Amino acid sequence: MTINQKRLVETFVELAKIDSESFFEKDIQEVLVSKLKDLGCKVQVDNAGKKYNTTAQGNVIGFFPGTIKSAPIVLSSHMDTVVPGKGVKPVVKKDKITSDGTTVLGADDKAGIAIILEVLKTLQEQKLPHPPVEAVFTLTEENGMAGAKNLDVKKIKGREGIILDNEEVNELLVQGPAVNTIEVEIKGLGAHAGVCPEKGISAIEVAAYALSVMKLGRIDKETVANFGIIKGGSLTNAVTEDIYLKGEARSLQDGKLEKQTAHMKSCFEKAIKRYTKKINGKVHKPVLTFTVTPRYPAVNVPKTHPMVKAILAAGKAQGVKISPVASGGGCDANILSGKGFILPNLGVGCRDCHTVKESLLLKEFFAACEIALSAVLAYKK
Length: 381
Description:
Layout: H1 5-16, H2 26-38, E1 42-45, E2 60-64, E3 73-78, E4 91-92, E5 96-98, H3 107-126, E6 133-138, H4 146-149, E7 161-166, E8 171-176, E9 178-187, E10 191-192, H5 203-212, E11 217-220, E12 223-232, E13 238-239, E14 242-251, H6 254-274, E15 277-279, E16 282-284, E17 287-296, E18 299-300, H7 306-317, E19 323-326, H8 332-338, E20 345-347, E21 350-351, E22 359-361, H9 362-378
Parallel strand pairs: 3-6, 3-7, 7-20, 8-19
Antiparallel strand pairs: 1-2, 2-6, 4-5, 5-22, 8-18, 8-20, 9-14, 9-17, 10-13, 11-12, 12-14, 15-16, 21-22
């Protein structure tokens, strides 16, 4: 049992040359439909792409028949790349693949796609006993996971498997944070800052006080918070009446996320109270609008889960010591976790993703493919 390394590289190079920046995934969608059909898969394309502004119809789902009785195992990667991703020219070297330096390489996540296709081809060629495999290729992961958010999960029977969208092959992401986007608007009271500043309430001062008493940055090992956008004011001689802030809180634990979000709101409420005052005998209270929008749920795959154990065992057989770790960012695993899937995220060997220095380390790329193949062969439910 072994993969065809030469074919794996050729598949990746072919995929890397297909333009597929976020929102422009039509070409790669069509290529994947064709490749899956050539592998004997029943293929469906959902209508996720019709729910937002993208060129593709939807997520691609390939149903590869099994030879043993089992629930299907899910293998997933995303179709889109970040910019600049047009006209990628892969350069194959002895130990890695790079772009020509003018674009990203797109190993994030075409390396994952190539691995999935090679796993299916190997199962087919070598006639290895295997469970059914559902290959799920999503749209627009790099811009808010819109494909996964709109995935028609009713089309998929499996609920366990692997996402191939991490960097280092020796790291398996089993935890990822839930995130709340927080928008704050404060309306104070305008006044001439040179003539009668005491008749105004500066929205900037209200916000500044709230931020000064707020816990931000690293809250604990599982929780962080930040405000990154502040807009307000237009004149130096006017007490600023309105200010807008946008930030976020994220945590690996839902309870901690709720606690931090509530803390941030309470700080603004304290500031409102502090800057409420009488002006000409009338009480003026700043107006606070505090809006919380959940961005995506947390991923929490137990380290003792059979899927995790199978991946770790497969890594050991390849001489790769894989560590289950937590991520501070989000990916399709977050969205799909919220939809009932258990999908630890395996590294594919890429480095410096989202930059023109991106590379794909061949030793790790090959190992990731062997590990995914072994995990599929070990799966039975």
